[in-house]
Amino acid sequence: MWGQAIWPVTLECGDLVLRPIKLRDKAEWTRVRARNSAWLQPWEASNPSSQGELPSYGGMVRVLNRQAREASALPFIITERVPSQRKPVIVGQLTVSSIMWGSAMSATLGYWVDQGRAGRGIAPTAVAMATDHCFRQLGLHRMEINIRPENAASLRVVEKLGFRDEGLRPRYLHINGAWADHRSFALTSEEVPEGVLQRWLARR
Question: How far apart are CA 74 and CA 9, in angstroms?
């Protein structure tokens, strides 16, 4: 029941559309990921218990959909309307995960964006849209983003959106085959009464 109450959902801002990831996205998603393999590999999550191997696309979608039904994740594909295309094209992925209810009311957010579309405000806009949805529609209180200290592009995203730097977490996540340090950034709903998206668009 909880999962049905919060998912599926589609979020839109101009030409940017966040929608649920689907099994039928496999071909397009795989093409985008293959084109961006060198761009994404240094920041890629890995599995220390299986020699770094991650599940297949179908396995990933099934796990994410189960988590959505359990109200512990919001698995979005980031798409963009392009005049030359019949339907919005995939330009990235954003997942709100580790949703905790009760006294915590918090979640963690992760994302990636096609390198060919980086620097155009897609990542901060998508993060702002998802964060606002979690704060305003789901009633969550805190959103956290964990970023490798070397990932300059992602660090710029949280800086643009005003996420607080909460410090370094040594060897926090297994990334690209090894345990890696991360910096944690967070926002609480009280810090953005006007909404993250409105604040970001006003500053652009």
Answer: 9
End-to-end CA distance of the chain: 39
Q: Write the CB contacts of 172 (distance below 8 Å, at least 6 apart in sequence).
A: 146, 179, 180, 181, 182, 184
Residues whose CB falls within 8 Å of the CB of residue 183, separated by 6 or more in sequence, listed in order: 146, 147, 148, 149, 155, 165, 166, 167, 168, 169
Q: How far apart are CA 120 and CA 134, in angstroms?
A: 24
- Report the pLDDT value the prediction gives residue 51, as an integer from 0 to 100: 60
Starting at the earlier edge strand, list the strands of the sheet with 178-188: 11-13, 16-20, 74-80, 89-100, 106-113, 142-147, 178-188, 164-175
Average confidence score pLDDT of the chain? 94
For residue 1, the model assigns a pLDDT of 46
User: Which tokens hold the place of 167?
Assistant: 């410090």
For residue range 138-191, list pLDDT tens digits in order: 999 999 999 999 999 999 999 999 999 999 999 999 998 899 999 999 999 999
- For strand 178-188 and strand 74-80, is the pairing parallel, antiparallel, or unpaired? unpaired
